[in-house]
Amino acid sequence: MTTTETPLQPVHRLDYTPPDYAIHTVELTFHLGEDATEVEAVLAMERTPTADGAPPLRLHGQTLELLEVAIDDAPLAADAYAVDAEGLTIHEVPAVFSLTTRVRIKPQENLSLSGLYRTSGNFCTQCEAHGFRRITYFLDRPDVMATYRTTIVADASRYPVMLSNGNKVAEGTSEDGKTWVTWEDPFPKPSYLFALVAGDLRCHAGRFTTKSGREVALEIWVEPQNLDRCDYALQSLIRSMRWDEETYGLEHDLDVYMIVAVNDFNMGAMENKGLNVFNSKYVLARPDTATDQDYEGIEGVIGHEYFHNWTGNRVTCRDWFQLTLKEGLTVYRDQRFTADMTSAAVKRIKDVQGLRVRQFLEDAGPMAHPVRPESYVSMDNFYTATVYQKGAEVVRMYETLLGRAGFRKGMDLYFERHDGQAVTCDDFRAAMADANKVDLEQFGRWYQTPGTPTVKVEEAWDPAGGRYTLTLTQALSPRAKDVPQDQRELHIPVAVGLLGADGSSLPLQIEGEQQPRSGTGTAVLELREQTQSWTFVGLDQRPVASVLRGFSAPVKLEFARDRGQLAFLMGHDTDSFSRWDAGQTLARTLLLENAAQGQERLDPTFVEAWGRILADPELDGSLKALALALPSEVELAQHMQVIDVDALHAARQAAKRQLAEAHRATLQATYDRLNDGAPYQNDATSIANRRLKNACLSYLSTLQDPAIVEQVYAQFGRADNMTDAQTALMLLCSLDVPQHARPRVLLHPLEGRPLVLDKWFSLQALSTLPGTADAVATLCEHGSTRSRATACAALLGTFAAGNLVQVPRQGRQRLPPARGQGARGRPHMNPQVASRLARAFSSTQLRSAPGAAARAARADRGPTG
Ligand code: BES
Ligand code: ZN
């Protein structure tokens, strides 16, 4: 067991220094072998103007066996350099020189999914963040940008397809019968964007003509048996390309754009220049294997990686502390893309839901960090919800403050200034400020403040003067205790609207303004001080305020409202997000109250308001399904001081049952109407119908009525699409139906369809029935056609993040082995995956109070345990 590596020293953001040497061009030759691979690198290097004297050359390198090193073609004497576990030092180098190295690596033994590794018999690379140093000696840092020319030599019978970044410029056969291919990438890039793939792959091809007339070949490379499941990914790519041209004027810059789907991949996908590598679950889809959510996921991830070509690749990060510069911005772009392709309101609600469940939790715990962290020990731990999702919210706030057109101007200036450079979050902010001639100095504090701030709302109504005053007060979270006194006020955009008694938008005229604002009925208040007030004048009735519309800032809102107001907004707010949020707030209040008091009865006004939404003919099905859903247990738990998981689960289940009892007829009628047996389609209306239909079925299934259980079985049996099948299966997994019935469904032949098998796994991991933790452990040992490490990680992740009811009981003992261990019978765990899982489990730990967990454990063992 390897336990001791060099003790890891934290790296600090403010310690950044520019590199002493630049690398202008890189020529790589790979000899891919069955036992080992040899990599030759020729680097054109030059000392930089900022270097102090003639410093030694220190190159990163890990797990490399050095065979040869030469400067300007002269091999180095043994005392001219030194090799250690982290790299290669050459004591003296000229100001301008060519460095040649030859190393041997063992991709066959590389189980870390970083560097060059094997998956399903193919070769594949993953270099972000620090994988390139496992391929060759290099300045493996994003501010060293070079052009690459890559030659791959291999046995063509095993590896008929050999890919790398850029355009293919030459190919041939060598004397020993091997095939070689040369690729050239004309755009300077950091090493983390390098990629190589070789294997027996097939191509689903398409093409795209850019707005300036460039013909781009689109190629999706997959294992032969998957060729019939690529078209949705291809069409998504085409939509992404068109969207980026239309929205930001950004075109693709190479003659070919390739995507490779692999089974073993630790993340969703990777944006390597011109050669994206994807986890196959974000490429492959067919109605019988993919749910509506899977399709949406594919389109979102395809878009995300494509959008990186400009936000990440052409303009990259100076150092890894700037990760949110590319990830926050690109998540923001993919969110907007999905919003434009589907329903903007539904997308916004889901994104905020995700932010609140995952990022707020991170922000409240010991892992809390600013979107731009100050230090790290291992970069693997910093691919977080904060860097990604909160980072996207920070970008969204620029757009809220500057408007669509202003934001676009800022983006244009950013590319104009920084194309081909490695830059910082401050450079991005400066482009936004300068393009719009505004001061965004204070806004910069968002990048350095950890924790979720709160905004408190107070209101005052002056009936005689027709004046309504909103007073907003901001406060940082306790996690921001180290932020200096003079930097504790953030610049927060708070979008508000005022509603009249009939639900109409009231005119917005702020005291001091000459006339009411024209337009949308929403005003953006810019909160910059600790406390500020705004008075709306000229009102003929007391308004109901809708505050933080569209979730205009990543804050917690404290607004003491009565239930009547919440129910009113739930029924009438013109902002779809706020309408949904009011309903959720009301439901949460009621459920928490019931859980605390061990009570089951639900407030009749809520039951009634809920029924009105169910019956509302105007509401789109997707939006309706979201509005009808009760806040999840994980979400509710965040609002409890001491978390009593059982009480929470009981209160929520009881609430669902009461809603179902009260509205059974409408639920059944809606279900029957939408369950029309029409063949599967995946347009927006069909998706909305399925969502609503399945929401109805979920409520009905709480009634424990044998007739309804039969309906659920029937849906599973008849489904011609994965969405309907999976919903039915999920409901059955948590239904305590007679034992003989469950295996009938669960033994459904899913073997040999790894992505489907994963679904079956995660459904079981989410079951609230007792014994789930044991089932998860057993499933982890289960053989599967794809690597056990991948399947097991998916399973544990789902369990840890989603199963509030069963994790506190016994789940934590099942923590995966730490980095690199690979204990007997356990899969080796990639460091990023291990980090992600450890975080998921530790947040569950946080959520459960010792008393409640102990009580739950006792309950599980029963009276004699
Ligand atoms: N650059 C990342 C992927 C990555 C990061 C791979 C670090 C390996 C190490 C990529 O652009 C990304 O962010 N992918 C996301 C999906 C995306 C839709 C948010 C992922 O893989 O989860
Ligand atoms: Zn990304």
List the helices and strands and how they pair.
Layout: E1 11-12, E2 21-31, E3 37-47, E4 57-60, E5 65-71, E6 74-75, E7 81-84, E8 87-90, E9 96-105, E10 115-119, E11 122-126, E12 146-154, E13 161-164, E14 167-173, E15 179-189, E16 196-199, E17 202-209, E18 215-222, H1 231-248, E19 256-262, E20 269-270, E21 275-279, H2 292-307, E22 316-317, H3 323-341, H4 344-364, E23 375-376, H5 385-418, E24 422-423, H6 425-436, E25 454-462, E26 467-475, E27 492-499, E28 523-527, E29 531-536, E30 544-547, E31 556-558, H7 563-572, H8 576-597, H9 604-615, H10 621-628, H11 633-637, H12 645-662, H13 664-674, H14 684-701, H15 706-718, H16 722-733, H17 741-746, H18 754-765, H19 772-781, H20 788-802, H21 807-810, H22 831-847, H23 850-861
Parallel strand pairs: 2-12, 18-19, 19-21, 22-24, 25-31
Antiparallel strand pairs: 1-23, 2-3, 3-9, 4-8, 5-6, 5-9, 7-8, 10-11, 11-16, 12-15, 13-16, 14-15, 17-18, 20-21, 25-26, 26-29, 27-28, 27-30
Helix pairs in contact: 1-2, 2-3, 3-4, 3-5, 4-5, 4-8, 5-6, 7-8, 8-12, 10-14, 13-14, 14-16, 15-16, 16-18, 18-20, 19-20, 20-22
The structure holds ligand BES and zinc ion (ZN).
Our Rg estimate from Cα atoms comes to 28 Å
Name the overall outline: globular
Largest sheet: 8 strands, mixed
DSSP summary, beta strand count? 31
Which strands sit side by side, in order, in the main sheet?
6-5-9-3-2-12-15-14
Number of helices: 23
The poorly predicted ranges are 1-5, 814-827, 845-865
Helical coverage, percent range: 25-40%
Derived from helix and strand composition plus strand pairing, the structural class reads: alpha+beta
**Strand composition percent:** 15-25%
What is the residue-averaged pLDDT?
Answer: 90
Bound molecules: ligand BES, zinc ion
User: Kindly, what is the distance between the CA atoms of the first and last residues, rounded to a whole number of angstroms?
Assistant: 36 Å
